[in-house]
Amino acid sequence: MIKKSEIRFSIALDDNKVPEAISWTATDAGPDIHFAKAINIALWDREQAGTMKIDLWTKDMPVDEMKRFVVDNIGSMAENIVTATDDKEMANKMRALCKELSEYLDKQEQTQERL
């Protein structure tokens, strides 16, 4: 028997169709409703052999957190590429980019703290 799992996202929109709240539930995550400020979903479309993406963030997501979210996604993709393909060189290049971007963001935050 094949086990199935479902993930459901619920997006509350304002009058201008801008996300105000993002919540999700998953059959493997228990009955609780979880909340997020942003989601990034990438799917490989088997018919078109290309990536389809959904990127949403709530209007209360601070810019600095959005930047960290992007860097975290790149880091996660680095781990994914090693697991899926064992391409350590590609993963290391992605990790190096994450390190560079993190240092850049740290400098930005330090500059803002001084203001």
TrEMBL record:
Protein's recorded name: Gliding motility-associated protein GldC
Organism superkingdom: Bacteria
One Pfam family from the record: GldC-like
Organism whose genome encodes this protein: Hymenobacter artigasi
